[in-house]
Amino acid sequence: MKHLSRRHLLLGGAAAGVGLPVLHRTVPHAGVHGDLAIAASTNGSKHGTGGHGGGVAGPAFKSGGVVDHKANGFNPTDLLRDFDMGKTRRLASGRTLREWDIVAIDKEIEIAPGVKYPAWTFNGRVPGPTLRCNEGDLLRVRFVNGSTHPHTMHFHGFHPAEMDGVPGVGAGVIEPGKSTTYEFDADPFGLHLYHCHVGPLAEHIARGMYGAFIIDPKQGRPEADELMMMMNGFNTTFDAEGNQVYAVNTVAFHYVNEPIKVKRGELVRIYLVNILEYDPINSLHTHGMFFDYYPTGTRLQPNELTDVVMLGQGQRGICEMRFKFPGEFMFHAHKSEFADLGWMAFFEVS
Amino acid sequence: MSVEIEAPPTVEKPASPSGLPTWMLGLIPLALIAVAMLALLTVGGDTLGERNGPPIEDIAVERTVLRPGEIDLTVRNAGADSVQIAQVFVNDQYVDFTADSERVGRLGSQKLTLDYPWQDGSPLLVSLLLSSGAVVEHEIAIAIETPVADGGFYGLMALLGIYVGVIPVMLGMLFLPFLGRVRERWLQIFMAATIGLLGFLAVDAYLEGTEIAAQGSGAFGGAGLLFIGAAVAYLGLVAVDRHLRARGERAKAAGAGGFELSLLIAIGIGLHNLGEGLAIGSAYAIGELALGAFLVFGFALHNTTEGVAIVAPLSGRKRPSFARLALLGLIAGAPAILGAFIGASAYNPELVALLIGFGIGAIAQVIVQLVPTIRDQAGRALHPASVGGILGGVAILYATGLLISG
Fold first, then answer.
1. Which of residues 103-162 of B touch A (CB under 8 A)?
2. CB–CB of A236 and B215 under 8 A?
3. Which end of chain B is more exposed for a tag (fewer CB within 10 A), N or C?
4. What is the predicted pLDDT for the residue at A48?
5. What order of strands is seen across the sheet that includes strand A260-262?
6. CATH annotation of B59-140
7. What's the CATH superfamily of A224-349?
8. CATH 3.30.420.270 corresponds to the domain A74-110+118-216
9. Would the ipTM clear 0.90, i.e. be above it?
10. Rounded to two decimals, what is the model's pTM?
11. Ranges of CATH 2.60.40.1890 domains, chain B
């Protein structure tokens, strides 16, 4: 019995000629995490390489395979702490004007070792840049569509109707080669997101056109090691029936190979966004510790101390935690299927 | 009046105007074709521009071997381009695996070894994620450990082949003395029943063959191999038959015609039983065959009718020696043993389709051979008695077939 799901490949070459702003640091690939490989091998795995899983030790990719982050142009390890504050200028009124340049680019990215995906991106990366500002700022987002497909930028937050970034309202659909500027206030504070809103909506989102949008409260939040995690997935067959690859920050099992390094006792704040298309829910479960959960980050009081949160598409929240013990702690979707298909990760607490 | 008779036109080939020898005239176009093909291969493709749309990957799993904690797959690429199996997930879980090559070339195959703790008796869905993102799914209906092909295993397969092939056919041949006593009219009915029986087997083999061929990659022709196999066997047996006849006419040996017909029937049934053995062996290997007394009983009853078919042309003639009869029985029955070996150890759907095609062609040839033996005085092949016989043959196989499928 065989069934071949074919996708309709639309390779974009339109990135040529469009300047790609480099909005993140380029850090060399840290390599396969050796300690975990040993940890995994004591757990019954026959395989040392890849650093995880295999057989009864759990899900794993083919031994020895690595994603070429350089070709992708981004490394998920860097995306965690890569907050784009934009260019700021103080206006006569005393307010801060914060500006970003965002370009839509069609780009093939490697989402799992050896698996290529023809993505549509903001600034050549998936997720797009994490736009961060302060409550009350005047925001100005200049959007250039360098893709071969029409796109928009739709922000979650308070804004006038014409700044909503949907077809037929305001600037409406931005055709290839065209541009527009979205301008609105940073309101309300919290953890939000932005994404393309052109139809077919599911495909425009699934292709990678989304990013986190953080508005810090006026009074700020306590000093912490801050991490942005975008829970996403890829329907590589383009049949709109679930996903073949699940991940946090695009590359499946990336934080298994390169665990996220955090310090014991230090406050860790996770900006957690679920953008997963085609599946109704997603979730986060942390091992060996609990966290304070702030749904949408719009209140400064946590509403729960938990170790599992469940999110629908577009839902997001802030998780604050302090690790009590050193060592390697797994975290993953508590939808085991997603975890087994790529949404599995580790913290390395020192 | 004198008529001038023109000389008849010369039958000699006209001399080549260029004076070139014949072999040269053959070689020149051949060389030109080679040059043109080479040019097409190297530069011709560029004149057509780029392909329209992405490459269509077409790979299929040809063989599955299950070992504790491990799944071995042999995949074949039936598509036009080479394919890379980047990752594999089983029942929605990515698994570590090793492959014996980086990519699978056109018509090439690749062996994958998956590290997955599968559970006995559970269904498995293996998804091969290609580098392009396309997914090829392979279903394992029930996971069961693949038997190791050791001495004991081959012994079991041989026993199975003897039970379902050799013994029943030989038992059926015991009807020879009875057939020798019955009247001409009844003999015709028995021959007609043989035709019905063989026709049933041919249709059954065709249906089974198309089903098996569909499991393969289709890289080497898929169900088309049934027809190739059938044509090869049919034409091959016609050639053998003509050869035997020519010899027979020279020798004019009395009764030789009957034995030759029996031999052809035995060969046809033998090829059919090869296919039957393949089906049994492969079903056993993938755990789909419940071995038991009932199955052996069903096959035995089913195949005794084949023995009757073999000896029917021998009735009323000089009885061949026991050694010759035993040889006929072995030719018809023993291929089931070989089939079981192949089916259980080197199962390839397209090879099996080809072999089943042989059986179909052989049966068709035998039916053509048998038709003259059922003609009545008026020369009609279809008359009430023969029709009754044909339908009777079909009914017997249908009824005994129910025992096996049940």
1. 115-117, 127, 129-139
2. no
3. N
4. 36
5. A260-262, A344-349, A327-332, A281-286, A308-312
6. 2.60.40.1890
7. Cupredoxins -  blue copper proteins (2.60.40.420)
8. no
9. no
10. 0.77
11. 59-140
